[in-house]
Specification:
Length: 308
Amino acid sequence: MPNIIAISNLYKTYASGFSALKDVNLEIRSGEIFALLGPNGAGKTTLISTVCGIVRASQGTITVAGHDIVTDYRAARAMIGLVPQELTTDAFETVWATVSFSRGLFGRAPNPAHIEKVLKALSLWSKKDNKIMTLSGGMKRRVLIAKALAHEPEILFLDEPTAGVDVELRRDMWNLVRALKADGVTIILTTHYIEEAEEMADRIGVINRGEIVLVEEKAELMRKLGQKKLTLQLEQPLAAIPAPLAPYALTLSSNGAELTYTYDAHDEPGRIIALLRHVDEAGVRFKDLQTTQSSLEDIFVSLVREAK
């Protein structure tokens, strides 16, 4: 899959001396959903704003489908739709007017059929003649998304698009994202709802303190970094873990009714078999067992902790 965005040796240092981005190198593939995760202040919004030409980089290069965002700004920016965190809309305009105007800003000819399609997809059609100032916060968020899609961009940036919105909008949002991906649109999102990234993304990037900590295929990330837990539900509670089982670093629940073994997802399955054999030899009987794997949130927290 070819790259549609290429970021090389990107730095952003403000006049105060604060380094918001430090030697960021990142490539986004055409047609993928890329989730950028990081704690507050990690540099997610700065990175998006720099790609979109809102923030000027201190050093480095960014190209969008081969167009340099500085020397060929108009061509690069015309390919991008941006949904920012802030609710910035033209309060006295109608929904239809403000979305149509956004299309014209990019030099696109009027296309009422496309605007209608976008508004209906975002459940805004019934509000098309309403002034922005009369809408709820959730509806204003929908308008921002509609504005970003008005000029039919090939790349869509979603900066915390569902933060603080209702469940209905979140559902509509992700349905729309799936439809856009099916149409070949490249989508880059930042989110605090890690379960959304886990469900939607093809690849995951983690940024912390302005540096890219990791970029990985989601499935591969889960496989390589996810921990698994084997929990044995015991027939009789234990007061302590038998000495022969000490090499496995088991944990005993507070009531003594469960033994838990934590291991890496890529550990040899033979070690589990050996553990169960030693449990039996120690005279410990269990009535049930279950395995669970770390969520993406567990992995994310672990990565950020390691980067500090």
